[in-house]
Predict the 3D structure of the following.
Amino acid sequence: MSTPAAGRRGRATLSEVATLASVSIATVSKVLNGRSGVSEETRSRVEAVLNDRNYNRRATAQSTAPLVEVLCFEIDSPFGAAAIAGIERVTREQGIGMVVNGTLDSHQPHPSWIEGVVRRQPAGVILVAAQLSEKVRTRLRSHNIPVVMIDPYGAPSTDAPSVGSADWNGGYLATSHLIELGHSRVAIITGPDDMLASTARLSGYRAALDAAGIPIRREWVKPGKFHHDDGYEQGLALLSGDDRPTAIFASSDIQALGVYDAARALGLDIPRDLSVVGYDDLAIAKWAGPAMTTVHVPLAEMAEQAMQLVTRLHDEPELAYRRVDMATTLVARDSTAAPGA
Amino acid sequence: MSTPAAGRRGRATLSEVATLASVSIATVSKVLNGRSGVSEETRSRVEAVLNDRNYNRRATAQSTAPLVEVLCFEIDSPFGAAAIAGIERVTREQGIGMVVNGTLDSHQPHPSWIEGVVRRQPAGVILVAAQLSEKVRTRLRSHNIPVVMIDPYGAPSTDAPSVGSADWNGGYLATSHLIELGHSRVAIITGPDDMLASTARLSGYRAALDAAGIPIRREWVKPGKFHHDDGYEQGLALLSGDDRPTAIFASSDIQALGVYDAARALGLDIPRDLSVVGYDDLAIAKWAGPAMTTVHVPLAEMAEQAMQLVTRLHDEPELAYRRVDMATTLVARDSTAAPGA
């Protein structure tokens, strides 16, 4: 952000920025509005000054037609759709337009995304399971566009406020539920190990088993990526032998549906032969056969929190960054029962 | 649109509109930009003149940061999410921002929606299973904002171009598939009867049975609303007696999942005791247990067509309105088999 020597010297005017960057006021204006006709080198120099001097943007078109940008991983997944719907409800009440973009497979936006954002001058950006490079973050900062993350995967950046849910508690709740039903043979299929949410859920699983004095079997901790395919494949691997678990905690509802398929392929009945707990509580969980016991992630409340943070950060860019975790709860349905019940 | 006497006299300038509406140029500008400070009566008068004289809006902010508005029924439903994802892919390629709004339960937007749209000045509006009142349509026309509908439910408005899919063919394909497998006891659960898509699918069902010389049993045509609940309830009603169908064609994948639940509740195996065909081919269809045979609705292609239409209509507002139907196809999976197989 600021170079150490520069510090914060109050907010600069347009003409001060132009002088500091050795360009015309028109050029600063072009950079601010994301217009073409400015070389990459000049744009970087102007943005560095904007960043450094915390330029105080005047009200522009966006104050009469305010926008918020949502960058979402897998927008047509049940998780992405639920998060977008949660944000939409809040923006609708506030009279704000919600611009939605999907990410590429890498959780990063398309390279041209930042150009559109700078032109649209939104009040803020909300990331849903999406990631931004430091270069893109710097550009957003230089345009005074705050970024808030929902449920970040991977270690949250220290300079981006985020809204998460209590992942460790969720993992603990799911596993404790199975133990209370009488299961001691409980396996887990995890999410990607570079996502903090996965690690926290796994850690909650371990803690619940520890608390019950049940040893953890390494071969029953299977890696996954929240996807249907890994639920199916790891489900088959876990359930194929005689020495199999009586319960599986999957780290997403979609992954749990993959476990359902694996059980069906092996002729195992849920919940008689196998209890399954999912994670997320998407609409598909209650439609699954049997209706799925799962951990409820309060996406609607998380979206509301994220929007509140964006609004506050837009008004007070100096607001201390922070993290909020919303509580998770267990929703018991028909996919869990006592072992052999 | 135009009053008969007025006709088309070429496009008016801002000052001509002001003179005709007996207001200042500043007032016309406020109306064009959706700003406050104009009475409802004055706004209506100015918009009537804009409509009548086909005012030629100059390039504004939106030409450098173009937007398209998507108004979608049930944005967190699998269908809504798939449509939004299809539109997003096209807008991303074209460097256009996609603003997403959900509808109220009535398929209509929130009353304040139109104010936001007028302020944002999008290149166009795409409706996904959503409806607009004539009053709202008139306001959009007066601001030169074209409207395109995706898969309209109910009779398509004669003055709104729309992109649909071949619903009659879909119903015919689904039913023919069951007949070819050897079923003659084929029931249907329909969508809402005020939606043209439902009527066309039902009509395709009837035509396929007729073509095979199979009489239609009225008690096997059950009304539904594309929802899980009606799939479950009508499924139970159809399957509870001894004189039950061996196959059910559900008018949506979600509804078909409700039929799955009904079959499970009655101890019937799919496909051994009952074949089920869904409609839409959402991601959840292939994850269902068993993987669902369904009619594929080409949402990605429909979204692309809708965006092309919006772009063309924005450039050529006089373009003759038209309807495009994209082909549906049958995707055979594991929920259908010969009766008693």
